[in-house]
Amino acid sequence: MSQPRDNIEEQALDWLIRQREPAFDEWEAFADWLAADPEHAAIYHAMAAADERSAALFTAPSPAPIVRRAEAITPRRRIGRRSAIGLATAAALLAITSYGLLGPGSSPYAVETPPGVHRTVTLADGTRIEMNGGTRLRLDREDSRLALLDHGEAAFTVTHDADNPFVVKTGDATLRDVGTIFNVLREAGVTQVAVAEGAVLYNPDGEAVRLDAGRTLRAVDGEDHVVLGSTAPADMAGWRQGRLVYDGAPLASVASDLSRNLGLRVAASPEVAARPFRGIIMLDRDRDRLLAQLGPLLDVDVKRDQQGWTLTARTRAQP
């Protein structure tokens, strides 16, 4: 039996206020409260939306800092048909020749994890690489100071050596450690970096952007700038502790993270893909329980089909 609306509104307001506290860690209890009654979720999300709108009236949003890429000063040229054929041929050869990026005399090998499986690799110098699901790394037995991230997500805990810094290459980016723990995500032409401890130098021979602890960077292939941001170092690479932390990430990204961590296909439908989400998802080992909690937590319907699971706009009950 549903509670009186006034009681639910008081409880929803209490959750909103408590979630603003930095030490708030009752996300599982919050998810259970949302799932207990459809009215809980409806009232909570309505109050959260009103809270964000009222905050926007008094706080002018600060644009994310932007750094122009060094190569942006080079005029772009149109690519003709013959050039396009050449590029396609080069792309086809990439899989054959890519190990050459590790240099002559190298002894390359690849490490890959399927979706839903985590793995930790410890290199000869003591550097530890924690790989999320759906990740592929290329390493070199002859050089433990270089890693190539083809796709997926990895957290690097680097043994620092100022005379021989550790380097990660992914997409168009080169990352050089400055005594560091950092997370790198490479997916669909986008590179995201988050530094939890120490510092990382992004493209040291180009923009040379220094990212200190708590700083983040997002770069999209083909764009002439990168976007800088910040987040709590403790929240970076939270997937290692079974939690996904978000502060306005689109649901499309949330769905990709869930797929990588759960080993299930999770997608966001076009009508909700860009919708921002703020909160924490605890990766419950009981996947059925987690999927049941996702709908109220994300304010969506979670539908199963032949390919997996899809987040869709919530169907509201008719009054």
TrEMBL record:
Pfam families in alphabetical order: DUF4880, FecR
Name under which the protein is recorded: Iron dicitrate transport regulator FecR
Record's keyword annotation contains Transmembrane: yes
* Xref: InterPro entries: FecR (IPR006860), FecR_N (IPR032623), Ferrdict_sens_TM (IPR012373)
* Domain annotation FecR N-terminal: ranges: 10-49
Swiss-Prot/TrEMBL keywords: Membrane, Transmembrane, Transmembrane helix
Residues that span the membrane, as ranges: 84-102
Locate the FecR protein domain: which residues? 111-200
Instruction: Show the PANTHER family listed in the entry.
Output: PERIPLASMIC SIGNAL SENSOR AND SIGMA FACTOR ACTIVATOR FECR-RELATED, PROTEIN FECR
One term of GO molecular function: sigma factor antagonist activity
